[in-house]
Amino acid sequence: MAYIYGIVLLAFVPIVQAQQMTTCRLASQSIHNDARLCVYVGANRTYYSNTVSYDAGPCPPQYSCVYRPNSKGFNLKNVVKNIKDTFKGKD
After folding, report:
1. Which of 25, 30, 54, 72 could form a disulfide with 37 if both were Cys (CB 3.0 to 4.6 A apart)?
2. Residue 12 burial (10 A CB sphere; 0-12, 13-18, 19+)
3. Is residue 5 part of a domain?
4. Which of 45, 41, 42, 47 is nearest to 22 (CA)?
5. Which one, of 91, 24, 83, lies nearest residue 59 by Cα?
6. CA 11 to CA 81: how far, in whole Å?
7. CA distances from 8 to 12, 14, 17 (A)
8. 54 is in which domain, residue-wise?
9. What's the total number of domains in the chain?
């Protein structure tokens, strides 16, 4: 009985496809308070941003990120503004 129940459960589990990854290279970094904002660009205008603690050191020169061709780029000024707003909310 348990064997049949297991087969039924497996029938309803969605199949997850592995995401394609690409190497993103550091395009820009900005420091605000105790955080460092790292902006990366990869193949076919794949954009990715990451924040790291200032104490962790500089942003890594490259990063493995999800391949998203022709993704909308980051406006660094808006990203920094959003991060500042987020930090204001934590105080």
Report:
1. 30
2. exposed
3. no
4. 42
5. 24
6. 46
7. 7, 13, 21
8. 18-75
9. 1
